[in-house]
Amino acid sequence: MSSRRNRFVAAFLLALGIASLSGCGGAVDSVVNPTTYELTDSDAILSPNASFTIEAISTNSDVTGHDFQVQEEGGGTVVQGTGSQTNTALYTAPSTLGTYHVRVRFLRNSDVRATRTFTATVAVPSE
Q1: Pick the CATH number of 36-122 from 2.60.40.3450, 3.40.50.1400, 3.40.50.1240, 2.40.30.170
Q2: Do 116 and 37 meet the contact criterion of CB atoms below 8 Å apart?
Q3: Contact 76, 93 (CB under 8 A)
Q4: Which of 44, 68, 89, 110 has the fewest CB atoms within 10 Å of its CB?
Q5: Distances (CA, A) of 65 to 30, 33, 54, 78, 125
Q6: Model-level pTM greater than 0.85?
Q7: Residue partners of 105: CB distance under 8 A and separation at least 6
Q8: What is the pLDDT of residues 27-78, one digit of tens each?
């Protein structure tokens, strides 16, 4: 009788193990294909009043939009692309030398999925 019970317990545990592994497909996919949030360039050295295109790239994500915002008062301007180009923005440096930051938010509807920062150093060009 004990042998029969042992086989039943072994079969039950095997079935339980198989059932618990059947829901793991998503976890394996997220390891093989991880979600990434990046900027094509995270920094740049610019002349006063020069412009630079910032591009946000996300892979394997549910991002539906982006938000670009200059962090410092008087730190230049940023104009976000429209239509299918909302993942890009044109940053124009101020005339004042210094270091400035553009916060880039990766959005899913109104929820923030990730935030990255672009750093612009405005300097006089060397000759």
Answers
A1: 2.60.40.3450
A2: yes
A3: yes
A4: 110
A5: 21, 21, 14, 16, 35
A6: no
A7: 66, 67, 69, 112, 114, 115
A8: 555 567 889 999 999 999 999 999 999 999 999 999 999 999 999 999 999 9
